[in-house]
Amino acid sequence: MKFLPALAAVLALVTLDGLRAQDLDFGAQRERIKAGRAAVEARFADEQKACRARFAVTDCMRDITRQRNATLADLRRQENEVNDAERRLREQRRQRDLVQRQAERERDDQQRRERAARETQERGERAAELERKRAEASRPATAAGKTPRGLPGPQGSPRAPDGTGTPNGPTPTEAAKNRAAYEKRLQEAEAHKAEVRARIAKRSKPPASALPVPAAPGSGS
User: Fold this and answer.
1) Which residue did the predictor score with more confidence, 35 or 141?
2) Is residue 19 part of a domain?
3) Hey, what long-range contacts does 134-142 have (CB within 8 A, 24 or more apart)?
4) 15 and 78 in contact (C-beta within 8 Å)?
5) 172-203 vs 57-143: helix axis angle to the nearest 10?
6) What is the pTM of this model?
7) Is residue 207 part of a domain?
8) Is there a contact between 80 and 38 (Cβ–Cβ < 8 Å)?
9) Hey, CA dihedral for 173, 174, 179, 184, is it positive or negative?
10) Is residue 82 part of a domain?
11) Radius of gyration of the chain (CA)
């Protein structure tokens, strides 16, 4: 009786030929190998009983033992292949996770760098805008013209270009504002002068004429 052909169906369950590691259910493969070993041992026990019923017991026992050992060795080989495949798959997944985490870290770092660059640019733009507003606010006071005597002239009146050909003084809008302020001061000065003249005229007004003195009694006409 041949021992190996009887186990062909069992061995087909645990073979790894043509299978990829990621397609395997390693637990199921180990269970099939375990079932194959149990089938080998059960078949070996049956073959031993058959050998004892024969005349050449020793030769029969030697043959079935050799076949049993060969089959178990093949099952061990397949079990090792399952273990190796599982280790390879585990290592591949570990490497894949490392690459994925590294890519995520690089992406996060790039996003942080871009965000920091945007914030720096925005701070620079805000600082430049603030400086520009400060310069505009201080420009009329530093460019205002002055007159040596009497009422001050209109501040910010445009002046003729200097020797370099570059105009000095405020912008037309600033000059118009300064002109309006100057005219307002003139009006206030005129009103003040009128008030002063009125007070002086009131103080210098002559008193009322005295009444005539009555004639003395007994005087003849």
Assistant:
1) 35
2) yes
3) 139/170, 139/174, 140/170, 140/174, 140/177, 140/178
4) yes
5) 40
6) 0.41
7) no
8) no
9) positive
10) yes
11) 59
Nearest-CA neighbor of 23 among 77, 89, 71, 72? 89
Rounded Cα distance between 23 and 13, Å, is 15
Query: At residue 158, what is the residue type?
Result: P
Q: Which residue has the higher pLDDT, 5 or 119?
A: 119
Is 159 in a helix, a strand, or coil?
A: coil
* Eight-class DSSP state of 166: -
Using 50, 70 and 90 to split pLDDT, how confident is the model at 81?
very high
| Residue 173: C-alpha distances to residues 116, 159, 176, 212 (Å) | 40, 14, 5, 70
Is there a domain that residue 77 lies in? yes
Tell me the residue range of the domain where 46 lies: 5-101
DSSP 38-77: HHHHHHHHHHHHHHHTSS-HHHHHHHHHHHHHHHHHHHHH
Total number of domains in the chain? 1
Non-local (6+) Cβ contacts of 135 within 8 A are none
Flag whether pLDDT at 56 surpasses 90.
no
